[in-house]
Specification:
Elements: E1 4-11, H1 15-35, E2 37-45, H2 49-54, E3 62-63, H3 66-70, E4 77-80, H4 88-97, E5 101-104, H5 107-124, E6 128-129, H6 140-148, E7 153-159, H7 162-174, H8 178-187, H9 196-199, H10 202-216, E8 225-227, H11 235-243, E9 247-257, E10 260-270, E11 283-290, E12 294-301, H12 305-322
Parallel strand pairs: 1-2, 1-4, 2-3, 4-5, 5-6, 8-10
Antiparallel strand pairs: 7-9, 7-11, 9-10, 11-12
This protein binds L-homoserine.
Length: 337
């Protein structure tokens, strides 16, 4: 089989971006043998050249200028793993407008700008893919796409934040203090640069808004999520839940009520006979209910560099093979008067 080269630009070479670079280096031959695609990193936007070299990339691909990325004709797919809304959202839009496929892990930028980014991708006939933005390595978007082919999704419910799930698990099973468990989650590369996004439920709200937007086919904004984090959960509550045979979990739920979606992120007691009570550490699980297929549960590592990089690399290959075909249709939200 003749191979073709696909040029990649990485925006951000931190924990996730670095893992993507390493995956491409280590798995490049296997990927090429399976798909006929040779992935080549041609640009890496990072604060310092050192980071780029630490990720095992040649120093000459390093840049600090987005212009050098969007203006580089050898770049086919831009992979964004910077996090935060700006400048990431602007870079994503610019990349699409410049005719690049875009793969992002950035739930905040996507949740806040979903309709605009999907429109930019469709206008330029390019892919906008984001498997890694929700549920880390779990093929959630692929499954949701498949379910949505002939179902009306009426309910989404699950655990979508690895950091808080790790903290709650360690508090329950080892009686670890909250602050120490959070430090461990940071050390393991699960937490956001500012872990407030995790522990106050913002990260879960972004992810829920993305899932609900796909189910609804219109942009559901993160502000529509009724959000409570885990900072108010006490060690006593965690211990009591365990003594009752269940667990306190940060549950993200979206339910179709008539034509309206009701969205909520909050700590809840989950009884021991429910599957979600047994989702431990950095794992996530999401139950998607369609009107024809019924409930479907997806489970796997929701946070961590390798699972996240795995989802990103799979998106890069999908972008290279299918182009705009997998870009979702997300219409802007109707204005409320
Ligand atoms: N901070 C996120 C989490 C990373 O803990 O789930 C994965 O999106």
């Amino acid at each position: 089989m003749a191979s073709r080269e696909v040029g990649i630009a990485l925006l951000g070479v931190g924990i996730v971006g670095g893992a993507v670079a390493r995956t491409i280096t280590e798995q490049g031959d296997v990927i090429e043998a399976r798909t006929g695609i040779r992935l080549v990193v041609r640009r890496a936007l990072a604060r310092s050249r050192e980071r780029v070299v630490q990720a095992g990339l040649p120093p000459e691909v390093a840049t600090t200028e987005i212009e050098e990325v969007v203006g580089d004709e050898r770049v086919d797919v831009v992979v964004e793993a910077m996090g935060g809304e700006e400048p990431a959202a602007t870079y994503l839009r610019r990349s699409l407008e410049a005719g690049k496929h875009v793969v992002t892990a950035n739930k905040e930028a996507l949740a806040k700008n979903f309709a605009e980014l999907a429109a930019a991708a469709r206008a330029s006939g390019r892919a906008l893919l984001f498997e890694a933005s929700v549920g880390g390595g779990i093929p959630l978007m692929a499954s949701l796409r498949q379910i949505l082919a002939d179902n009306r999704v009426t309910r989404i419910r699950g655990i979508v934040n690895g950091t808080t799930n790790y903290i709650l698990t360690q508090m329950a099973e080892r009686r670890t203090a909250y602050a120490e468990a959070l430090r461990e989650a940071q050390r393991l590369g699960y937490a956001e640069p500012d872990p407030t996004a995790d522990v106050e439920g913002y990260d879960a709200a972004y992810k829920l808004a993305i899932l609900a937007s796909l189910a609804a086919g219109r942009h559901i904004r993160p502000e529509q999520v009724d959000r409570t984090g885990i900072t108010g959960v006490t060690p006593e509550q965690v211990a009591e839940a365990r003594a009752r045979g269940g667990a306190i979990k940060l549950i993200a739920g979206a339910e179709l009520d008539g034509e309206e979606w009701r969205l909520r992120v909050a700590p809840e007691f989950v009884p021991g006979d429910h599957l979600l009570a047994h989702v431990r550490l950095n794992f996530n699980a999401v139950e998607i209910t369609g009107d024809r297929v019924g409930p479907v549960v997806l489970y796997g590592q929701g946070a961590g560099p390798l699972p996240t990089a795995s989802a990103i690399v799979s998106d890069i290959l999908d972008a290279a093979r299918f182009g705009a075909a997998l870009t979702p249709h997300i219409v802007p939200q109707m204005s409320r008067t």
